[in-house]
Structures are given as structure tokens and as C-alpha cells.
Amino acid sequence: MEAFCLTLIPADSGAVTFLVLGSVSAVLMSVAKAGFGGSIGILSFPLMIYACGGRPMVAAGIMLPMLIICDYAAIIPWRGKWNLRAVGLLLPGSAAGICLGWLALWGFQQLGRAGPTAEQEQIANACLKLSVGAIALLFVVLQAVRAARARMPAFRPVLWQGACIGAAAGLTSTIAHAAGPIVSMYMLPQGMPKGRFVASTVLYYWIGNQLKLAPYIALGLLDMDTLVSALALMPAVVIGTAAGLLLHKRVPQRSFTGVVYVLLALAGAHLAFKAAQTLWF
Questions:
Q1: What are the structural domain ranges in the chain?
Q2: CA distances in angstroms from 266 to 15, 43, 136, 140, 261, listed in the order given
Q3: Model-level pTM?
Q4: How far is it, in rounded angstroms, from Cα 34 to Cα 19?
Q5: pLDDT tens-digit series, residues 54-67
Q6: Is 114 or 236 the better-scoring residue by pLDDT?
């Protein structure tokens, strides 16, 4: 029994730390996806990094199967309510962005394997942590700027705009499961009703996360250990999905996201600071 329990926990991570922070990450991710369009779920990846003992590659591998299960759970209640044009414009660029993300993760891996010491692995992890922290902080700043601006006319994207935004979303999604901010900044200005906005993001993530399976398998980020670790957190995914569908109807999104933005800024700043310590100090 003890050996089985240890296989559920990533190396360098305590059982309590992994199960507590990992469960919080899973709940927040699934609540955001099922009820609020996913953008605030960006906080879940920094939490998962902490849960995995500061190892971003391990955290990314564990989160992908959780995201896919959550996508399948969320797409059923939102089926048919999405904006197909808005989602379709993102997909060609997203495929290209996922390929770029594949190359970036491969580069991080090569940096970590460049020598026999642990220093190179620490540098690779720090680079990825810095990327996640910077994305999180940039998102909070952009949301604050958007909230301060007067109401703008509805955005009607064309193919080149969707392709460029999709490429950025595919790249950040592959390296840090962080497409939410970019997709939200693309969807929100289009003035969709709340339900259509959530349904459109759910459809996009459902497609995009399955496209990421190929690079993750090729890079060795998905193996039996990561799948079993993800399995240990699946009850939290189920609870979060149910809670997200309930909260969508009962809680104003502005109240929910306000608290998460503060937590996201703190998590992003902490990750960036720790990465800077490793890289420069």
C-alpha cells in the first residue's frame, strides 16, 4: 500500500503538499473552465508547480490529462451554444503555436540535459517559471487596463487576426497551459452573451488540449507516473466542474475573478522572483 501511494506523488514533492495544492489547482481549473470561460484558471498551473516541488515539466505533464477530462465534462452541458466562427478563426494559428511550443519545451529539456550537474536543470526550470510568472502578471495588468477603458465597439475578427491570436494561444498553452488570458482577450471584446462566451472557450480548449497530446507524448511528459498522479486528483476535477456549472448561474463573474486576479498577481510575482534569483542572483 505504501509503495502504491508513493507512485501517486511526483518525486521531490511531499504527499500532503501535492494532494492539497494539487487538489486546489484542479478545483480552480475545473471551476474556471466549466463556469467562467477558463481565463482565471491560469492560477492553477503555478499552484501545480508548487505541488510538484517546483518542477514545471512534471506539473505540465500531470495537468494535461486533467484538462482533457475536464474538457469532456464541460463540453456536454455547453454543446451547441458556442460561436463556431470565433473558434474556427483561432484553430489554424493554434496548430502552428502548438508546434512552436513543442520546440520551446524541447529546448527547455535540452538545456536541462546539457551537463551532468543539477545546475542546468535548475536553469531550465527557472526559465519556464519565469515564462509562467510573466504571463500571469501581464494578464493581470492587461485586465486592469481593459477595465479602466471606456466601453469599446464589439470586435469582429478576420482570419489574420484570429490566426495571430491563435498562434500566441497555442504557444502559451503548450508551454504553460496558459492560453486562457489570450483566448479571453480575443473572445470578450466580441460582445458575446456570457453563456456563448463560456461555450466557445470550452470548445476551443476541447480541441486544443487534444492537439497537445502528440508533443507531450513525444517529449516524454506523459507517462504512467504522470497519468497515475493525475488520477489521484480526478475527484477534485469532478467537484470543480460541478461547482463551476453551479457558480455560473449564481455568482457574478466580476466578484469571483477579482479575488483570483489578486491571487494570480501574487503567484506570478513569486514565480518570477524565484526564477530571477536562480537566473541572475
A1: 2-280
A2: 24, 10, 9, 10, 9
A3: 0.79
A4: 22
A5: 788 888 899 999 99
A6: 236
